[in-house]
Automatic annotation (TrEMBL):
<comment type="function">
    <text>Involved in the coupling of aromatic side chains of the heptapeptide of vancomycin.</text>
</comment>
<comment type="pathway">
    <text>Antibiotic biosynthesis; vancomycin biosynthesis.</text>
</comment>
<dbReference type="InterPro" id="IPR036396">
    <property type="entry name" value="Cyt_P450_sf"/>
</dbReference>
<comment type="similarity">
    <text>Belongs to the cytochrome P450 family.</text>
</comment>
<protein>
    <submittedName>
        <fullName>Cytochrome P450</fullName>
    </submittedName>
</protein>
<dbReference type="GO" id="GO:0016705">
    <property type="term" value="F:oxidoreductase activity, acting on paired donors, with incorporation or reduction of molecular oxygen"/>
</dbReference>
<keyword id="KW-0479">Metal-binding</keyword>
<keyword id="KW-0560">Oxidoreductase</keyword>
<dbReference type="InterPro" id="IPR001128">
    <property type="entry name" value="Cyt_P450"/>
</dbReference>
<dbReference type="GO" id="GO:0020037">
    <property type="term" value="F:heme binding"/>
</dbReference>
<dbReference type="InterPro" id="IPR002397">
    <property type="entry name" value="Cyt_P450_B"/>
</dbReference>
<dbReference type="GO" id="GO:0005506">
    <property type="term" value="F:iron ion binding"/>
</dbReference>
<keyword id="KW-0349">Heme</keyword>
<keyword id="KW-0503">Monooxygenase</keyword>
<dbReference type="GO" id="GO:0004497">
    <property type="term" value="F:monooxygenase activity"/>
</dbReference>
<dbReference type="Pfam" id="PF00067">
    <property type="entry name" value="p450"/>
</dbReference>
<keyword id="KW-0408">Iron</keyword>
């Protein structure tokens, strides 16, 4: 590994406090950097938009089990831990093809009224949580909303959804020990959802589980019992992605009154605004690390076989080579798309369309229902210490 690469030590306090600045400095130093990640070893990082985009779609870099810090789980849960996220090539494509029809832009648009109903129900409850006129949107809106939406889409029985909210909060807290303890319940919940759909194949809702059960019934060789349960739990837990996006977006809008005023004046800006918010303050700071399948030459550096390679998503999304005045939040930015907030390539976020629609509906309703809403604490004080995910520890607002 060459010594001339910019180096980012993720254990350093200044990096933990402000990873966006550290990543941006590395981007301007060169297109390739070296990350030092505690417990993970040295990792190469593509810092700029073009390099990051190419790498994310390059078959020479693969996701596998070593891409994730997997918690210790009971022996009987192990067969269900290998998810679609760590598969590649034909194996990944086969499973993704089975679930992709439920996550198309068209299906997301058709699901909008159900999302709106879930949003309205949560907003109806919000004033009850506002002691002294102040409430925390993270536990009372941004966190339960995506879980309720994905449970409805996937097909988790309604009576089980409060338990899945708890599972989701545990996973979102990034607490390894708590996550490990929750795993048996998560697996049991996925098995129960599949069993419920088999018992009531004609019941309304649950598009994903219904599609998977039908696919298995039509051709049992396409999908094993282990695969169907694994797909269900993984899709539900991964469906929490909009939690941090919605929270970050609300904090950004309330911290930029000019942009908020523009959005209020022209609600048709909302789809474009959501794309810009994903680019500017999306949750993804680092892509899940890939493994080099062989020696690969990157910008004059030989990345050896087996080395870990990632992309600095937040730095790429603010690369001045790809975006004009990239550090400025501009809800009317043209073009609005092109960011890497949902990654790129074969592992492009499956739920991107649902996340987009969900965020549009959530922000529209929130701003309409509470026109005088304001942050109850400075936005910079709410940021979690997390170099991998841009997220908030709380979102206190006055209504």
């Amino acid at each position: 590994m060459t010594d001339t690469l910019p180096e980012i030590d993720l254990s350093r306090p200044e990096v933990l406090r402000d990873p966006l600045t550290a990543y941006g400095q590395a981007r301007e130093s060169g297109p390739l950097a070296r990350l030092l990640i505690p417990g993970f070893g040295p990792t190469y990082a593509l810092t700029r938009y073009d390099g990051a985009r190419v790498m994310l779609g390059d078959a020479r870099f693969e996701l596998d089990a070593t891409s994730y810090m997997r918690p210790e789980v009971p022996e009987d849960c192990l067969p269900y831990m290998r998810t679609m996220s760590e598969m590649n090539g034909a194996e990944h494509a086969r499973l993704r093809k089975l679930v992709a029809p439920a996550f198309t832009p068209r299906r997301a648009a058709e699901f909008r009224p159900r999302i709106a109903a879930i949003v309205d129900a949560l907003l109806d409850e919000l004033p009850a949580h506002a002691g002294g006129g102040e409430t925390d949107l993270l536990p009372h809106f941004a966190r339960p909303l995506p879980m309720d939406v994905i449970c409805a889409l996937v097909g988790i029985p309604e009576e089980d959804r409060p338990r899945w909210r708890e599972y989701g909060a545990t996973v979102a807290g990034a607490a390894g020990a708590d996550f490990a303890r929750a795993i048996p319940g998560i697996m049991a919940g996925a098995k129960a959802a599949v069993a419920a759909r088999r018992d009531h194949p004609d019941s309304a809702g649950g598009e994903v589980v219904g599609d998977l059960v039908r696919a298995q019934d039509e051709d049992g060789d396409r999908l094993s019992d282990i695969e169907i349960v694994t797909l269900v739990w993984h899709l539900v837990i991964a469906g929490q992605t909009p939690t941090n996006l919605i929270a970050n977006a609300v904090a950004a809008l309330l911290s930029h009154p000019d942009q908020l005023a523009a959005l209020r004046a022209d609600p048709t800006l909302m789809p474009r605004a959501v794309e810009e918010l994903i680019r500017w303050c999306g949750p993804a700071q680092l892509a899940v690390p890939r493994q080099a399948r062989g020696d690969v030459e990157l910008y004059g550096t030989t990345v050896p076989h087996g080395a870990k390679v990632t992309a600095l998503i937040s730095a790429a999304n603010r690369d001045p080579r790809a975006f004009d005045d990239p550090d400025r939040l501009d809800l009317a930015r043209v073009p609005a798309t092109g960011h890497l907030g949902f990654a790129h390539g074969p592992h492009f976020c499956l739920g991107a369309s649902i996340a987009r629609v969900q965020t549009q509906v959530a922000l529209t309703a929130l701003l309409r229902r509470f026109p005088r809403m304001a942050l109850a604490a400075p936005a910079e004080e709410l940021q979690a210490v997390d170099p991998g995910t841009r997220r908030l520890t709380a979102l206190p607002v006055t209504l």
